[in-house]
Structures are given as structure tokens and as C-alpha cells.
Amino acid sequence: MTTDIVRDFPRVSADLVHQASQYQAAILADVNGRRGALHGRIAALRPRMKLAGPALTVDVRPGDNLMIHAAISLAKPGDVLVIDGKGDQTAALMGTIMMTACRKLGLAGVVIDGAVRDSLEIDEMDYPVFSVGTNPNGPTKNVAGRIGHPVCIGGVTVRSGDLVVADADGVVAIERERVEGLLPLARKKVEDEAARIAQIGQGNTAAAWLLPALRAAGVLKEGETL
């Protein structure tokens, strides 16, 4: 028998969340094969906002937040609400009251493919919210949805328990089984990028890969240079 609410599921561990939170979303997306980044329409309400934690997924009908209230009641500290609001911007699905409850319960933040409101108050709370924008209209609370099931949000399938990391560049979701193996790659990429930036600072601005790539693409002939 199927249920619309999945209460129990494996979460990415708190230790792995902490380690992953040290990296930019861009670094994690790169080492994840340039996969997992949600569509850029889902962005930080304020650029300074960032979050990391296991997803608790919520599927709602556009403009209705009944199941979000239910999800807040079921969420565990550290969870990130990941809400498939179908990209609707005609009504806000969450505002100050719900965000205050999320913060009080210790939730790491909210990622919503939909609109929010009370943005100035959320800014003052400094609570991490990633949405498609704002709208002053309030939602209805009438329509059934699902909690804990996989959702497709911003073009990415996210399961409850998967890792979500978000910052000023956007939101990345990574399958929980892949996180541990990606962390050493993230560390190496940060080190490599720091070394490359140091080289540029010393005047070595030419990318070593550029000419071979141009030749492989047929832009330059063999032996030809820029």
C-alpha cells in the first residue's frame, strides 16, 4: 500500500553535511559531473544566504501550502525543506510565520520552486530561503500533496535524504550515496583552483588547455596558434 507521506528515510549524515558545507555549491556541482544544479530561477532571497542539509521533499499543487505545514511538523533539525511548487509565482507559499517556525525547529533552510512573501522580515531573520521570487498573495490550504517522495525541482530529481547545498550562486542537490566519494574531489579542486589563481597573479594568464581544445574543436589547425 502506498502512502502520500513517507516519514522514514535514510539521510546524509550530519558529519558529511558539515564537511560539504565548507565548499561552494559551484565546487560541488563541478565534481559531481556538472550535475545536480537546480535551474537558476531558484535563487537566494539575499546573496549572503547559504545552507546545507538533507532534503525533506514536499510536492504541492501551485498556490497551496497545506502539505508544507505538514512537512514542517514532520521535519527533523537540520533538514532542508525542498518544495516543488511548480514554479508558480502567482501566490506565496511561505512567509514570516512559517519561516519563524522552521527556524525555531532547527531546520537548515528552505528551497522552493515557488514564491515567498514577507521578504524584508525574512531578511531581518537571516533565515536561508531560496525561491523563484516573491508575491504578496497568500496561498490556499486545501489541496493534498506528498511528502518524502522524489520531486523534480528546477530540472533536478531530489529524494528525501539527499544532500542540498546552496549559496549565492544557486542550489545543488547530490544523491546521498555519492557525497562521501565527492568530498576528496572537492578538496582537490579547491587546491587546484587556488594554485591556478596564484599563477594568474604572477602573470601566467594563458590557460594551458585552450589551444588543444581549439584545435580539437576545429577552430585552429594543427600547429596554428592564436
From TrEMBL:
Positions of substrate binding: 95-98, 117
InterPro entries: RraA/RraA-like, RraA/RraA-like_sf
Pfam families noted in UniProt: RraA-like (PF03737)
CDD domains to which the protein is assigned, alphabetical: RraA_family
Annotated GO MF terms: metal ion binding
Keywords: Magnesium, Metal-binding
SUPFAM superfamilies noted in UniProt: RraA-like
UniProt source species: Ramlibacter algicola
Gene3D superfamilies linked: Ribonuclease E inhibitor RraA/RraA-like (3.50.30.40)
Residues that, per the record, bind Mg(2+): 118
Lineage, top ranks: Bacteria, Pseudomonadati, Pseudomonadota, Betaproteobacteria, Burkholderiales
Name the record gives this protein: Putative 4-hydroxy-4-methyl-2-oxoglutarate aldolase
Cofactor: Mg(2+); a divalent metal cation
Keyword Metal-binding set for record: yes
